[in-house]
Fold this sequence. Notes:
Layout: E1 12-16, E2 20-22, E3 30-31, E4 35-39, E5 42-47, E6 59-62, E7 67-70, E8 72-77, E9 84-85, E10 90-91, H1 93-98, E11 102-107, H2 120-139, E12 147-149, H3 161-169, H4 186-198, E13 204-205, H5 220-226, E14 230-231, H6 243-252, E15 256-260, H7 265-277, E16 284-287, H8 300-311, H9 316-330, E17 346-350, H10 360-365, E18 371-377, E19 380-383, E20 397-400
Helix pairs in contact: 4-5, 6-7, 8-9
Amino acid sequence: MAISTTVQSSGKVVIRGIGLLLSGDIDRPILDADTIVVQDGLITAVGRQKDCDTAAAAQVIDCRGTAVAPGLIDSHVHPVFGDWTPRQNQLGWIESCMHGGVTTMVSAGEVHLPGRPRDIVGVKALAITAQRAFEGMRAAGIGGGVKVHAGAPVIEQGMTEEDFAELAAGGVKLLGEIGLGSVKAGAEAGRMVKWARKHGMRSTIHTGGPSIPGSGLIDEDVVLEADADVIGHVNGGHTSLSYRAVCKLCEQSSRALEIVHNGNERIAILTARHAIELKCPHRIILGTDSPAGSGVQPLGILRLIALISSLADVPAEMAFAFATGNTARLRDLPQGLVETGRPADFVFMDKAQHSSGADLLDSVRLGDIPGIGMVMIDGIVRCARSRNTPPATEVPIVVAA
Ligand SMILES: [Zn+2]
């Protein structure tokens, strides 16, 4: 059976009655606005309702005073094909994460594919196929319509600059986690990272001890020498480098510091604190590093936001920016900000019922995860009240369609 790849268009959508609008921008995390106007999947206006052209909308959503944020971005996932993971043999994990507010995922390598090729031709073929397949899957709305940026080859010894040029020409924009293949030395990895960068591809390196039997240790000296764009799971995945080593990475590199759910939680908190002390919160991005031995975490990004906000004393609106605008900027994605011209990917939230927090941000600061009332991708409502979060106190309603 052929799957349609027609991309549905949202037409004009008006989102009004917003009680709190989080921008995703760490420098200005809260916007003074109660209305967003969307046209064909892109934001065309953000402001006060009286100042926005809200006429002739195909759909009107009344937020009833709830909060809106950019859709969450999971900076570190390991997809394989379709909405299936062989790691824990689960179906529907991507769509489940959409119910946790995730609207974009970035692959750190399709490493769980049974029989994954290790020869260079096979590595390139898999990357190009994965990129195409996930792009087509998203267009068809499979996996809840989540934007899965996949096709992230794990570099192997013997690759040349021509291989990177060929991958880039084939539509590949990412490298999978460096260190999961045969390239484990800093100098060799650094040479390939430069080739990747030259051809417009962003790179991530595995940091810390081996994740599963068969993978290896990547220490702070290798990470610094490789100089990948993203210091992947700086808090380990799961086994972390020492806090002293992580401080060295914070201080001697200017690259993105990726904190993951499936890592060492103590180091996650200490890294966030240290980055803020060093006045570089712009470098913190969040991922789950799932599916993994720890399973799939549909609420992983929300849980990480609540963990960091409550235990590292980070304002909740800033923690949301880690998972949205920061990741988008450091991974060169157009989404992640509530701003004119950006994709209309939103998560609608309120404090969970019976949270002791006074409002959404207070509840997160106290360590509770929010309730999600709706998720929108490219201006299209993908779910109403989440089936996975605790129930939101108030939820948005579609008042005209
Ligand atoms: Zn890893």
